[in-house]
Amino acid sequence: EAGVAQSPRYKIIEKRQSVAFWCNPISGHATLYWYQQILGQGPKLLIQFQNNGVVDDSQLPKDRFSAERLKGVDSTLKIQPAKLEDSAVYLCASSLDRTQLGNEQFFGPGTRLTVL
Amino acid sequence: GQQVMQIPQYQHVQEGEDFTTYCNSSTTLSNIQWYKQRPGGHPVFLIQLVKSGEVKKQKRLTFQFGEAKKNSSLHITATQTTDVGTYFCAGRVGNQGGKLIFGQGTELSVKP
């Protein structure tokens, strides 16, 4: 079974530029998550989708971050414009169904973003 | 806001020694999950605890969920070099569909 795919793996941009990340979850997984992991910290949830609907985006800085999952499968996360403090690893994860009790999350390899 | 605190931040042990990391939540959790992240890798699910006072074992790893469902621990017996990595607890608040709140993680290094 293929895991969660993410691209690109690395990205270096200058502040005020834009960047987009792509994620393809495990086939059949209804729930998709985007996390931000700053060095030395635990992952912080940015947004959670159930199929193509947003379940939780309370910690998404909506003035600069946006995400979509139009067909309920793959997803993109965009930052526009980027700030220095956005330097982090952006992790995508998926789970079978958020309503199931035994609901482990499968993480992709992440995209390491450096903002100069 | 809701927080999940994890201690210690770092733990250095000699191979064969035991290791424990502790997780505390400011609010009651519906369940708690544990993940391991190897250096340069991504988090990998280890286990989920749901019931008050629950204890689960995976070989040398023992996981506990507190009676009040506000704290949890992971204990590794006789550490090996393959145990190296950062261990995260992640508490779920609210109902089953509630988001996971990750702790800061405990980075374990094992000296052979």
Describe the protein's architecture and organization.
The complex is a heterodimer of chains A (116) and B (112). With 116 residues, chain A is an all-beta fold. Chain A contains no helices and eleven strands. In chain A, strands 2, 4, 5, 6, 9, 10 and 11 form a seven-stranded mixed beta sheet that branches. In chain A, strands 1-3-8-7 form a four-stranded antiparallel beta sheet, with no helix packed on it. The radius of gyration of chain A is 13 Å and the shape is globular. The model of chain A has no long low-confidence stretch (mean pLDDT 93). Chain B is mostly beta strands and 112 residues long. Helices cover 0% and strands 54% of the residues of chain B. In chain B, the strands form two sheets. In chain B, strands 2, 4, 5, 9, 10 and 11 form a six-stranded mixed beta sheet that branches. A five-stranded antiparallel beta sheet of chain B has the order 1-3-8-7-6, with no helix packed on it. In chain B, a hairpin with a 2-residue loop joins strand 6 (55-58) and strand 7 (61-65). Chain B starts with a strand and ends with a strand. Chain B has no helices and eleven strands. The interface between A and B is medium-sized, with 25 and 22 residues.
